[in-house]
């Protein structure tokens, strides 16, 4: 239920409004290997929308790996966005809710491109939207790539299958698969879109040998999966992960880490939908199916299948088997302020809080209470979940990539502005997106909107500099901000507050504690790691050989 409320409300990122109008009616035409497309010209940019990168996953192709789109004949109109992938309706409006739903369809495997008119071998930023794998769209105004592309990069935004349509595993689906696996269809969509970019982006001025995958929230989770997935290897060369979370993932055929097998979860869903077989599932209306799956409590996740995801993501990173690419990664100080469904209620007394923590954490309780004290329970509850999901993941990935000899850059987004701070949403989940894309005027109706004054614009300019320069050469730099040292220089990180400030030693003790907790749970094999921490934590396993403390 907790996860259901999250994905249908607070984390349903972010799509609102119509695409920007072209500023020049001269249609740019590109002859790509996939086919010829005609887009629009927006100032010094060429923009192409709604380009299919795979055949529509409809009918018998529902719940199959995406199939390549045959080269089309003639010139394809690429002036309008394609449909959004089908998502369930939100439970209730939140700050992330869009003004009105976009047109939705199973025929949604499309991408959009913003490219400088004179681009030649330009770096590519490949954006994967968030939305808890339930929601989101590449056509979201927030993700308009014009400001980034104006810095000399090609920006690609993609759709991928969502909810049960994108992440359902089922024994019958595994049986019909050549690899005898199922699930992970949304991840396979992302890999197919990366292959399309590899084969076609040069025609739009991009360099297929310099692709940076970038994403926020479930988009960053997707990148963690891509980094651990052999079929994605070599299709990207750098990674930007914003508020990613390296949580435990169901296994395809075995119950583990407190979760049923992915196939069992899929079979349960089919029973709840009164679908006796795969044919009945494929005959269901797609929108009704995804809505019913959400209402039933189905959770879209990747599946450890030995093929697309060979192992738990954390195991891949622990063993150094992840993609050896430079990373820029970080999280937000107020992540849980807008995701309070992920945090328990504050206890009636400090004594109750401390007694609960000592009962759950045993020999780790003193370390826990130093970081998350009973003296400020409200903030401690929020910080506990923030760090277990996003803080630990960020430093884990930075440290792992540095161990591989790759440059890793860590950040903390801690920026406050009046509208957000007055709503008690300081540095909330996704609040960096208008700054990173430079689209202050594209926020949802209930989103605390930043003012377009000199201070906010300067911070946005610095972020755009850092992000695009990292995509260019793997080293974030800015004419509007200080030098950014890599993480392996004394745990260096960039603190984005009123302005970017280089600092060292992020939140002392936070990473070590959460690393120990995950290590013990992973070794025990019967407890997952996600937001089941703090007051919601089960009794944690005792000290385990091979873990750090």
Structure in words:
The chain has about 550 residues and is an alpha/beta fold. The chain has a single domain, classed as Rossmann fold (3-Layer(aba) Sandwich), CATH 3.40.50. About 30% of the residues lie in helices and about 15% in strands. It has helices spanning about 1-10, 145-150, 165, 170-175, 185-200, 220-230, 260-270, 280-285, 285-295, 315-320, 350-360, 365-370, 375-405, 420, 435, 455-475, 510-525; strands spanning about 30, 35-40, 40, 45-50, 75, 110-115, 120-130, 155-160, 205-215, 240, 325-330, 410-415, 490-495, 500-505. Strand 1 and strand 2 (about 35-40) form a beta hairpin. Helix 11 packs across helix 12 (about 365-370) and helix 13 (about 375-405) packs across helix 17 (about 510-525). Mean pLDDT is about 95; it is low at about 1-25.
As residue ranges, the low-confidence spans are: 1-24
State the helicity in percent bands. 25-40%
Give the total of domains: 1
Per CATH, the class reads Alpha Beta
Percent of sequence in beta strands: 5-15%
The CATH architecture comes to: 3-Layer(aba) Sandwich
| Gap from first CA to last CA | 34 Å
Give the neighbour order of strands across the main sheet: 3-4-6-8-7-9-10-11-12-13-14
Q: Would you count the extended β strands for me? A: 14
Main beta-sheet strand count, sense and barrel state = 11 strands, mixed
Cα-based radius of gyration, to the nearest Å:
22 Å
The number of helical elements comes to 17
Mean pLDDT equals 94
